[in-house]
User: What shape does this take?
Amino acid sequence: MRKLELVLGPDPQSRAVLQALEQGPLQDCTMPFVGGAHDRCRPRILATCNGIFTDEEAAALARTTVNLFRAWGLTDGEARALLGDMAQRTWARWKVGDIGRIDRDLRARMAILMGIHKALRYLFTEPARGYSWIRKPSAAFGGRSALDIMLRGEITDLIDLRAYLDAERGA
Assistant: This one.
């Protein structure tokens, strides 16, 4: 089993990992988040996604995001909402590997989603448990699921969930 760690940044290792992720199953990798304590998460995420990735790297991240959404069992509508209300036609193209232009907001959303995936991999040793946790109601969210929180649509909802998971795992 391959164990990969993705630290989102401009370094050659991050680029190599993005390329490797396209080749193999998503469950064989862990993906750490760029950020730290809740009050520092937002600026660091947005700075990381602010034009540092090449278009090729962003496309690789998009293909990895499609794989993540498949693992989470998201509907097309849920996937599109998490990606900032992506157009239905664009999402259909992404699912078959036709990735077009990716703007800064979308790059940031995908980076945060990969961080959420990474945190779940640390919290749950069995990947299936982490994937199913996304839909399970939680007392921490007032009886709502993590997916419900993310589907509110704001990028800050994704960031807040990421910060919560980081706190839960002691990062």
In short: Confidence is low (pLDDT under 50) at residues 1-14, 23-51. The chain is about 60% helix and 0% strand. Residues 26 and 68 are 7 Å apart (CA to CA). The radius of gyration is 15 Å.
